[in-house]
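Run log // design_07
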């Protein structure tokens, strides 16, 4: 009996001690497992965060790649435009050079025409007619005393002779357009003609008929107009000034078709 009690006395504490050790180990295991779970969750959160950052970076890369592509396209477009602009500049310089050449030729042609007219009409006095260049055209200004009696639109014989000489030059230069302008002084007209407009126009028409009918200048080249007294070249307050204003101007203009074509051309766009 005593031996049993003695055994129990020693065995029970050992059992209780063993039980306490197992419980502590179990609790430690639970704590370790919980810690591992927390670490796992933290790692999962970190992985999720990193995945989000990776996705964001991939988006940035795609966006930057798109911007680089657009920049490349823009650079290529600018290069093409630069080449096109250079080509346009070269074409415009070529066009301007052609225009300058034509203008030089035009000036030479005008001067040559003036000289032809001056040489052809050399036998007429300076107070009867004059030949000069104005605004890129040749003017043959014939005074009233050479062409018409006072207040008349009938061309006299000496005037017809001058017109015949002039027509010879015109007929050998078919590329010349001809404008006939009649001018009067400011003294009102009385008699056959209603007013100075009527007289200036009648005189221009009379010269046109002689040039086209008598001397065979092509009618398609000739235009008649009357200016009355509204374009004087001298004062109308003196007899000498009024005499200069009573004139008929034959204006000769070389055709400018090629020059006008170049002027109307737009730069390449």
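design_07 sequence
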């Amino acid at each position: 009996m005593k031996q049993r009690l003695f055994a129990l006395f020693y065995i029970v504490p050992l059992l209780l001690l063993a039980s306490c050790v197992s419980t502590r180990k179990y609790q430690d295991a639970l704590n370790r497992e919980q810690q591992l779970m927390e670490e796992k969750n933290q790692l999962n959160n970190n992985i999720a965060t990193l995945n989000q950052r990776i996705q964001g970076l991939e988006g940035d890369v795609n966006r930057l790649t798109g911007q680089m592509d657009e920049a490349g396209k823009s650079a290529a477009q600018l290069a093409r435009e630069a080449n096109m602009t250079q080509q346009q500049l070269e074409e415009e310089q070529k066009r301007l050079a052609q225009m300058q050449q034509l203008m030089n030729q035009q000036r030479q042609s005008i001067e040559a025409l003036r000289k032809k007219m001056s040489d052809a009409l050399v036998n007429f006095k300076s107070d009867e007619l004059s030949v000069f260049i104005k605004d890129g055209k040749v003017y043959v200004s014939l005074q009233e005393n050479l062409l018409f009696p006072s207040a008349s639109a009938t061309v006299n014989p000496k005037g017809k002779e001058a017109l015949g000489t002039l027509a010879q030059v015109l007929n050998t230069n078919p590329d010349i357009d001809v404008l006939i302008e009649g001018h009067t002084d400011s003294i009102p007209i009385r008699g056959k003609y209603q007013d100075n407009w009527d007289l200036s126009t009648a005189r221009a028409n009379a010269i046109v008929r002689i040039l086209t009918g008598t001397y065979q200048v092509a009618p398609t080249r000739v235009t008649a107009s009357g200016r009355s007294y509204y374009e004087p070249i001298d004062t109308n307050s003196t007899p000498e000034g009024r005499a200069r204003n009573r004139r008929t101007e034959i204006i000769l203009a070389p055709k400018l078709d090629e020059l006008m074509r170049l002027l109307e051309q737009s730069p390449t766009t």
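The first strand starts at residue 129 and ends at 134.
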